[in-house]
TrEMBL record:
Membrane-crossing segments per the record: none
InterPro entries the record matches: ABC1_dom, Kinase-like_dom_sf, Prot_kinase_dom, UbiB_kinase
Gene3D superfamilies assigned: Transferase(Phosphotransferase) domain 1
UniProt domain Protein kinase: residue ranges: 318-684
Domain of life: Bacteria
UniProt-recorded name of the protein: Protein kinase domain-containing protein
Region of interest called Disordered, as start-end residue ranges on this chain: 1-25
Organism in which the protein naturally occurs: Allohahella marinimesophila
Protein family: Belongs to the protein kinase superfamily. ADCK protein kinase family.
Length: 684
């Protein structure tokens, strides 16, 4: 019966408080205390230290791991191509670092666990496989294999498996990866080198784009400065029309702010300053001598571009803050450089000419500014008669500006100066400084320690000595120009007084050879034009201007309109046609009757008609425009040398100098031949 049923002893004990499965709670607590006492505390401390050191080593190795990738990354990112040996060495170093990482130890332990529980193949499965293979070989061998051979094999196998422990999964994967990479190393090297080439190309393209964006930014700054210079127009218009001094000062400030192209144009005007009011002439002469010098940073930049060095590393005693002269193209400095003379190293003084930065952009932006002003003027002053005039003027300005580009090239200037220096060695009355070196934006040449500008010498000479000096220097100047024009058919493009120096013996030195005029193929048109302008022959003028224009065929079709405009201009200039021919007295009597003022009017007509042809709708070729500029500068320079002398005396001296040219050249040629003959005799 259920009521008389006996309870099991275990069940009874479980119901008694303080007992569990037959063991009292007191006994269980005592057992736990005994087990705690039995724990080895030193061992626990040692294991804890080992775990902490392992964690620290793992963290430190992980931090250092990116450093192992650095050699490979450097090979990939460097610009130079790489070789297979370089890549193999860098990869070996990388994998060595990966093998020694604590993760390899962890991988090895984890792999051992997997092998121990036969989750992956282990040594036992490998040994069983080898036993199976041995049995298969021995059983299937057509020749009985001696037992001794089999035993030796197993001895070898036991020695083999007694080697260091097996690698972990990570190490095996590293081995596989390294083997694959080693196989593909040639392909990787080729791909990396091709990638470098593409990257260099893209980098070059990107650099070019960046440079172009910088050019655009620089152009905007130039235009901003030039447009800002327009502010001088208002105060100029507010001056008294007869106050030439104030007007000239305002124009000088505006030209300086506009930049090199306008300074060049001011120099062209300054070459004809004798035809202008004295106040304006005085202000314009500044542009023939000195303009604002280059900044020290600009000079340093020029040296870094040309030499890759600072100025003081190339020359001694070069003070970049104190130029001797400054022009629109660059600044001139005095320096010293070492040279060997008679086996001894000495310092000699030299002239260092440094080109301004970004000149090409300055000229182009100035031309653009002029064109924009001319175009915008059609908005502010709309008139049907002005439109063709302004359009022609814009084209003529662009053509004229193009002629200045030669002066921006220092390499071309060096070649020209060297060519004329060699020519001057055969002359006894004019010289060109010797060029020593030219590189990039820097030219180095001979220092003329005893020479001064003709302007300075004219000012310093006593009044009683000036006539003799003017006569001598004027004759040498005329003969030098004629020798260049007739013998070499090439002459100085800007021979104003600032580019002529004279030593204590009256010897001429011609400097600043940035541009020359080549007369090859131009004689017929130039001669016809000069004859027409000087004699007032309208037909000769019309034909010569059409021949010198950029579109001669189109201009020939409107010759009648051009001739009428030229006749009207000459009439306004009060230039009458000379009657007769140069070899008859009537011609010279009429010229004498006009006096110096008449000669000046005719010389002005030579320059005016050629430079203002946009009024006629004619665009004259750049070469002829700069020929006019050069001839005007020469004529103005000769008149400047002969300053404070009467027109009759100037005319007489000029005619006498022209007559003495042929005998002098003949004498110099004969003397040169005699000198060469004597040299040959002494050599023998």
């Amino acid at each position: 019966m259920s009521g008389n049923k006996k309870t099991a002893p275990a069940e009874r004990n479980a119901r008694v408080p303080g007992k569990m499965n037959g063991i009292s709670a007191v006994d269980d607590h005592a057992g736990r205390e005994r087990r705690l006492v039995e724990i080895n505390l030193p061992v626990l401390r040692q294991q804890t230290d080992r775990a902490l050191r392992s964690a620290g080593r793992f963290a430190l190795s992980t931090i250092r791991l990116p450093k192992a990738f650095l050699p490979v990354v450097q090979l990939v990112v460097r610009e130079d191509t790489l070789s297979r040996e370089e890549l193999a060495f860098a990869l070996d170093e990388l994998f060595t670092a990966l093998y020694t990482h604590p993760m390899a130890d962890t991988s090895r332990a984890f792999t051992g666990y997997l092998r121990r529980y036969r989750l992956i193949p282990n040594e036992e499965t490998t040994e069983n496989l080898i036993h199976y293979m041995v049995r298969q070989v021995t059983s299937r061998s057509p020749v009985e294999i001696p037992e001794q051979v089999i035993n030796e094999f197993w001895d070898f196998f036991q020695e083999l498996i007694s080697a260091p422990e097996l690698k972990g999964v990570l190490e095996l994967n590293l081995d596989i990866t390294r083997s694959v990479l080693r196989t593909y190393e040639p392909l990787l090297v080729d791909l990396l080198n091709r990638t470098k080439h593409i990257r260099r190309f893209n980098q070059s393209a990107m650099t070019d784009m960046v440079q172009k964006s910088r050019v655009l930014r620089s152009d905007l700054l130039i235009l901003r400065r030039q447009i800002k210079a327009i502010r001088y127009i208002k105060p100029f218009l507010q001056t008294d029309p007869k106050d030439f001094a104030t007007q000239a000062q305002i124009v000088a400030k505006m030209v300086s702010e506009f930049g090199p192209l306008f300074i060049k144009m001011a120099q062209v005007a300054a070459a004809n300053a004798d035809f202008l009011p004295e106040e304006i002439a005085r202000e314009l002469k500044v542009f023939q001598q000195d303009v604002e010098p280059m900044s020290a940073d600009d000079v340093r930049q020029a040296f870094m571009e040309s030499f890759g060095k600072e100025p003081h590393e190339v020359y001694f005693s070069l003070d970049i803050s104190r130029p001797l002269r400054s022009g629109s193209i660059g600044s001139v400095y005095l320096a010293k450089r070492p040279t060997v003379q008679n086996g001894v190293e000495v310092l000699i003084p030299v002239i260092v000419k440094v080109s301004r930065h970004n000149l090409e952009r300055e000229f182009q932006m100035s031309s653009l500014a002029l064109e924009l002003m001319l175009i915008s003027s059609q908005y502010w002053a709309p008139h049907s008669k002005l439109r063709p005039f302004l359009a022609s003027m814009s084209k003529q300005v662009s053509e004229f500006t193009r002629g200045f580009e030669q002066e921006l090239d220092f390499q071309s200037e060096a070649q020209i100066q060297t060519r004329f220096h060699e020519r001057s060695l055969d002359s006894g009355f004019w010289s060109v400084p010797r060029l020593f070196n030219n590189r990039g934006r820097v030219i180095e040449m001979e220092y003329l320690d005893t020479a001064r500008s003709v302007e300075q010498l004219l000012t310093e000479l006593p009044a009683r000595e000036r006539p003799r000096f003017q006569r001598s220097i004027g004759r040498d100047f005329v003969h030098a120009v004629l020798q260049h024009v007739l013998w070499y058919q090439e002459f100085h493009g800007d021979l104003h007084p600032g580019n002529i120096m004279v030593d204590s013996y009256g010897h001429l030195f011609l400097i600043d050879w940035g541009k020359t005029v080549d007369m090859e193929g131009k004689w017929a048109q130039v001669g016809q034009y000069l004859r027409g302008a000087l004699t007032g022959d309208v037909d000769a003028l019309a034909d010569s201007l059409i021949a010198m224009s950029t579109q001669p065929e189109e201009n020939q079709q409107r010759r009648a309109a051009i001739r009428a405009a030229l006749a009207e201009t000459l009439d306004k200039k009060h230039v009458e046609r000379l009657r007769g021919v140069p070899w008859k007295p009537r011609f010279w009597l009429q010229l004498k009757g006009e006096g110096l003022s008449g000669l000046q009017r005719r010389l002005q007509a030579v320059m005016h008609l050629l430079s203002n042809t946009y009024q006629l709708g004619i665009i004259v070729q750049s070469d002829y425009l700069h020929l006019s500029r050069s001839l005007s500068a020469m004529v103005a320079t000769y008149l400047h040398i002969q300053q404070k002398r009467s027109g009759l005396m100037i005319t007489g001296n000029l005619l006498m100098d022209l007559g003495l040219f042929a005998p002098r050249m003949t004498y110099l040629g004969a003397r040169k031949q005699a000198t060469r003959a004597l040299v040959k005799v002494f050599k023998k």
